[in-house]
Amino acid sequence: MRRALSNLLDNAARHAHRIVVAAAPEGGQMLRIVIDDDGPGIPAERREQMLRPFESGSAAGTGLGLAIARDIVAAHGGTLRLDTSPLGGLRVAITIPL
After folding, report:
1. Cβ 91 vs Cβ 34: under 8 Å
2. Is residue 93 helix, strand or coil?
3. How far does the chain reach from its first CA to its final CA, in angstroms?
4. In what order do the strands lie in the sheet with 79-84?
5. What is the dihedral of CA 18, 57, 46, 51, to 10 degrees?
6. pLDDT per residue as tens digits for the range 10-61
7. What span, in angstroms and rounded, lies between the C-alpha atoms of 62 and 39?
């Protein structure tokens, strides 16, 4: 999980000025971690594509960060979802079992 969170925070730091991270139990058996940023975000129609290996919206990126993070979260029995952040950029929401 450390690697997944590191990848996600590195991505946010690369594209945004402001990053907010929150974590809270959800339903007594799950943990929800949310990373919001004020960067350019990812258009809704490209989000699923950006979770695939080697897909990158940046010339400097390898396109592995989101794919690796998603795979790590899935290996822990969780889900990773991309959405629009209230800060105007990207929201990454992770839900994993406690």
Report:
1. yes
2. strand
3. 13
4. 19-26, 30-37, 90-97, 79-84
5. -90
6. 989 988 999 999 999 998 899 999 999 999 999 999 888 888 765 665 555 5
7. 18
